[in-house]
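Supplementary Text 2. Reproducibility record for the structural model of the 108-residue chain.

All settings were left at their defaults, and a single model was retained for analysis rather than an ensemble. We include the record here because the model underlies the residue-level annotations in Supplementary Table 4.
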Amino acid sequence: MSVSLTESAARQIQKQLAKRGKGIGLKLGVKKSGCSGYAYALDYADHLDENDRVFEGFGVKVIVKDEDLQWVNGIELDYRREGINEAFQFNNPNVTGTCGCGESFAVK
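Retained model, structure tokens:
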């Protein structure tokens, strides 16, 4: 099982945690949503739970619950600026389709 992040994503996570003033990392999960089935859920992590897995890159922790790993295994989390828009991007090898608005995804 693996979750990775780009240097750009790590810098953004570090900035957000510093601005917030606390936190041990970024929590990455999935929730049922949209017309394709699932959407990514991002939150701050202030502590680790028993069923959390920790992945580290560029000095940043990404925490994923065991039950969400099947949907995000192999994912690369990136952060991109395109014009005036900036956002996290999810490069997930498990995705088999997305909805037209890009809000949700389906997996193998």
